[in-house]
Amino acid sequence: MSKWFFINLAVLLFATWKVTTGYVGLHVIIGAMGLLLVLYNWTRHAVYSTIRSNINRERKIKFAKMTKSVRKYHQWVGTYSLLFILFHGLFALYQYNFHLNNFKVISGLIEMIILAGVVITGWRRKWKKTRHQHIIHLSFGFGMFAFILIHLIV
Q1: Could you tell me what percent of the chain has a pLDDT over 70?
Q2: Measured at the alpha carbon of residue 48, what is the angle toward residues 79 and 150, in degrees to the nearest 5?
Q3: Whole-angstrom Cα distance, residue 112 to residue 144?
Q4: How open is the CA angle 74-114-87, to the nearest 5 degrees?
Q5: Predicted confidence (pLDDT) per residue in 63-86, tens digit
Q6: What letter does residue 91 receive in the DSSP assignment?
């Protein structure tokens, strides 16, 4: 299996620990649901990394069939995750107000902008599939993942 499976599992366990040990408000629950959707979609990257790795052909076929069955939901899951994260941000800003010196707010806003970029480039790839579009979409995905980690840690 790809290292991304283990990284995704570690992020999921860390986020679960943060949610269960801290203040659980409506914005936290909505943000956790958005994170679950993001991790669901990001796990496809782990599956593709596994397919490209040096494993036997039967396992590659099994993973390819599995990812083909969920591919039709990928864009919609990404769109819904953006909506959940937008609502998470609105509820959090309503409860805590906007402060430029609060790094959690700034990292969340940057992550939300990058997530919007991921969703937009994902929908653009539906109509125009080029290598350049794929690289942009994947780069936004890596940036989004990094800012999710920063937002969880802070």
Answers
A1: 99
A2: 55
A3: 8
A4: 75
A5: 888 888 888 898 999 999 999 999
A6: H
